[in-house]
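[Structure tokenization] protein backbone as discrete codes

[Encoding] learned vocabulary of local backbone shapes

[Begin record] amino acids and matching fold tokens:

___
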Amino acid sequence: EKRRDSSDDSDSEDEKPTKKESKPRSLHKTTSIFLRNLAPTITKQEVEAMCKRFDGFLRAAIADPAPDRRWFRRGWVTFRREVKIKDICYNLNNIRLKDCELGPIVNRDLTRRIRTVPGLTCDRKVVRNDIKLAAKIIINLDNKWGLWQEEKKDDVLGLKSSNPLLSNITDYLIEEASAEEEELLGMKDGDEEGEGEKEGHTIARDEELIQVLDKMILYLRIVHSVDFYNHSEYPNEDEMPNRCGILHARGLPPATKVAINEVDEYITGFEKKMGGFLVPRQDLTDEEAAKLGLKVEEDEVEKFVSANTQELAKDKWLCPLSGKKFKGPDFVKKHIFNKHAEKVEEVKKEVRFFNSYLKDPKRPQLPEHPNNKPGSRSAPSGSSNSSSGRGGDYDYSGQSSRDATKYPVYGERGERGGYERDRYRQPPPSRREPFPPPRYRGGMDFGGRPVITYRDWDAPNDEYY
């Protein structure tokens, strides 16, 4: 029996490691490296090709260029959890990509994936308003990405949508009140609320409304990468190390009563913060884009053909792309479209890319000049910008620098380059030698030869004094 017991114990010990191995792995947990500096010329394909040499590489993500950082970008490289991330980071420190130091560091894990917002959001009035906002945002984003477009039957908030999540959503947006009972009891509108205004407003939860709102919040977070309570969107989240990493949720309701004004102020402020999602983004019109330099595809193709058509002599034309010679420009044009169609397609692609960039209202732009902002000081009327009709070099101390010239500063109008007398409004420089020569003590003049004054030819005339 003892032998059987020992054999049973050995079998149980063998079963223990098998149970541990059968535990599911945390596939969402990864390790990543943060690249602090990426030159604008570095592409995502180059970063992926550099990191694929290391085992466990999963994906790479690159942020948008930052105008305040000379258009440099930041990057994240994701690896599997079991790799030695510090060794990979050390090796990346010794690599320069296009003569650019990447500055790699190990990216830490998220400290809190679920973050709470004030418990004021649990109130029935706030939840009903959030349902209305979330429905509008879902409709706008579904239309943007072409979701649920096949059959639009339900009319939600004046907009049609076939999303099953929004079916019968208007039933939860209508308020209910015991108006008849209050009338029979002789109670005026808001008597109970009026009595409670002095003490405060108690947070009232409605589980049915909250359940409807939670489904909409999860739909926005998972499908459209929109964190509702953080009123923000996480772009390119599928390429980041933590997919669906952060989510803001409602906190516990406050134990004490809350002022009614505080609830109204929260609703108003939250609507303002969500304004960017409530109004769908619209690209610039062709008229507005034309003022910014919209390109025409046919004109750009014609410019490309004319730039690659060179006349060598009479009835002798050259195509620089192939080096062949033709009798006329029409033959060169036909040759470019037939033999170099990929070059023409590149020109068309560049035009489409440029026009799409130009029409995007959220495109990266240079910061506005401080003098062009409303309310800034305009240049004085006597400055070089207004008198000469052209802008001089700008001094970043806030003043306009003087035009470089060989003429003196203090000249009469019409004498030396047409400069005005009071242009710079500064006193003339003092002479080194007083004029006329001073008399010495005793009333006697100096008997020697007169003092020679080395007067500057560019000095002001005596009439100036």
User: Anything to note?
Assistant: Residues 124-145 form the longest helix (22 residues). The radius of gyration is 38 Å. DSSP finds 14 helices and 13 strands in the chain.
